[in-house]
Amino acid sequence: MELEELKRLAVGMLERAYCPYSHFPVGAALECADGSVYTGCNIENASYPVGTCAERTAVSTAVSEGKKHFVRIVIAAKTEKPCVPCGMCRQFMHEFSPDMEVICLSQSGEERRFALRELLPHGFEGSSLDCCK
Ligand code: THU
Questions:
Q1: Distances from the Cα of 73 to the Cαs of 28, 90, 125, in angstroms?
Q2: Cα(54)–Cα(30) distance, rounded to whole angstroms?
Q3: What residues line ligand 1, using a CB cutoff of 6 Å?
Q4: What is the mean pLDDT of each run of 10 residues along the chain (133 residues)?
C-alpha cells in the first residue's frame, strides 16, 4: 500500500478512538509483510490502566488474524508535534517485528520516521528467557 493511503487510514481511525478520559485520540494503521493492513485506535476504560493504545490495538488485531510480520506502522494524533509510541507499545511491537518502521504524524501532517530499533534499542525478547528453560 502507498504510504499516503496508510496515513489516511491512521488519520481516519482518530474518529474511532474511545478516549472519554484523556480526550487524546490516537489512530494507527499497520502494514504487514504480506501487504495486508490492520488499523486500531486507543480504547480507554474507567479503570484507567485497563485502557490500551492505538498501536497495540492494531497489532493485536493483526496477530489475532494470524499476522506476525510487520513492515511499518503509522501513528496519528491531533498533536502539534508527531506523536511517538509509548514504551509499552515499543516493546509490544518489538516482540513481532523489531526491524519495522514507525511513522509518526502530527495533526498538520508533520511526519517523523524511526526504525523501531532506534526507539527501543536492546528490547527484551523471547531469547532473553532461554537461561531459565
Ligand atoms: N496513546 C496511544 O494510543 N498511543 C500513543 O502512542 C500514546 C498514547 C493513548 C493512550 C491513552 O488512551 C491516551 O493516548 C493518552 O495517553
A1: 7, 11, 20
A2: 10
A3: 19, 22, 24, 26, 42, 44, 51, 53-55, 75, 83, 85-86, 89
A4: 96 98 98 98 98 98 98 98 97 98 97 98 91 78
